Amino acid sequence: MNLQTKIASAASEAAEVLERLGVRQELWSAGSRAVRSPVTGETIAQVQDTSAERVQAAIEAAHAAFLTWRNVPAPRRGELVRLLGEELRGAKADLGRLVTLEAGKITSEAEGEVQEMIDICDYAVGLSRQLFGLTIATERADHRMMETWHPLGVVGVITAFNFPVAVWSWNSALAFVCGDSVIWKPSEKTPLTALAVQALFEKACARCPDAPEGLSAVVIGGREVGETLVDHPKVPLVSATGSTAMGRAVGPRLASRFARALLELGGNNAAILAPTADLDLALRGVAFAAMGTAGQRCTTLRRLFVHESLYDAFLPRLKSAYASVPVGDPRAAGTLVGPLIDHGAFEAMQRALADARAAGGQVTGGEPVEVAGGQAAYVRPALVEMPGQTDVVRRETFAPILYVMTYKDLAEAIALNNDVPQGLSSSIFTNDMREAELFTSARGSDCGIANVNIGPSGAEIGGAFGGEKETGGGREAGSDSWKAYMRRATNTVNYGRTLPLAQGVKFDI
Question: Residue 294: which of 234, 349, 371 has the closest Cα?
Fold first, then answer.
């Protein structure tokens, strides 16, 4: 399909937004690394990679800041995060626009990502008064045993292009109230949003007398910058979001120095369409989960298992949605699917579709859509009817491809859901209580997220986000994820005048 769209210059708009957000011009106009907008394909900025010496200096400064920050009472640390939330509220439209220009998200999704940042700040402010441990029953008279939680240190945060600001906030808002400092390495494809968030954070710090210099820093560059964070002895935790291949490299390096890894890696998420499903609700849920963010969410729906009794009724409706969904400039009203991040992503999508055809798949969609004179990578989402779960289906392709298969009974569908290396998110559409409960039970989905009557994407910050198997096992955002950013100590206090030993040991002198 050819769709000619007149698109305004992304470069001029990015410059205006960066200026309004308070990012110094020399940070985005005088470097050697080109930043390209997926919206138009043009270069919108030139940033400078952070030198090895400056990365080291940033880590040392963050460690010094941690030594001060850990002594600030947690509710006062929460005040800084409250102020950050205020800055984000005031900048929501501009920061959302920058996310659109740099990552290609449609306006509502880009502003929704900033809203996630605001939400996690609100959550973390409350958390700053709830960093409590347990009092534990002890076998010794006149003793009290308890656990306490203490700040951990410098937290390295490595983020991916598809959520260029929200993932930083999931980690950093918690880390700051826990008493930690943060070094952020954004994706090489989306450094401008990181510079903008850092500028907003500095505004918040200027309003918070307790905040020390060096509490947060952004370091820009490729793999070597990330390796410095991973290998540095003063960075006790690295939270890394990206591919499974990246996690295989990062995990062992952190383990070699006994540092902590919080890994958010690949997802190959499935939904099951059961016989009792509300098909109107399921159609909307499947369409958003599979096509939103141009298929570039880690929670994107990539596999759909439709009960054989529903297949002939549901597939034509789904194909119609795929054929009619508006693809184009993400800034334009009515657009629901924006661009892929780059032409490399488009080529990977086409290779996966070729493999699917070779395995017997019937492809609907997947063709390029001409926008911005073909300089950017726009594509119509692809729906692939597959004869079974072949190797191409078990691979995650970071693009809008939905593989559709049939199943006969729920046990088979759950087995198919679990029969991939990844274990991030999953869902079932059903009005059968037994099916819903089985799917979310220990015998059901093996993913970190298991939903009923919604798709696998669209997580909220109140629940811990992450998955199992090759997804890495990490958890970010709500629930008790704050514990990853602190160290636990067990304390026993003897308030008596004798010294009874545990387990009845006798040692009299």
Answer: 349
Tell me if residue 460 is catalytic.
no
Q: How do residues 369-395 score in pLDDT, each as one tens digit?
A: 999 778 999 999 999 999 999 999 999
Distance CA 101, CA 171 (A): 24
CATH number for 269-466: choose from 3.30.420.40, 3.90.550.10, 2.30.30.240, 3.40.309.10: 3.40.309.10
Residues in contact with 483: Cβ distance below 8 Å, sequence separation at least 6, in sequence order: 149
Out of 79, 116, 264, 476, which one is annotated catalytic?
Answer: 264
CB 454 within 8 A of CB 440: no
pLDDT digits (tens, 9 = 90+) for 301-318: 999 999 999 999 999 999
Half-sphere exposure for 261 (CA within 13 Å, toward CB): 24
DSSP state for residue 151 in the 8-state scheme: E
The fold adopted by the segment(s) 10-265+472-489 is Aldehyde Dehydrogenase; Chain A, domain 1 (3.40.605)
Pairing state of beta strands 401-407 and 301-307? parallel
* Predicted model pTM: 0.96
Q: Where are the beta strands (DSSP E) in 186-300?
A: 216-218, 237-241, 260-264, 269-273
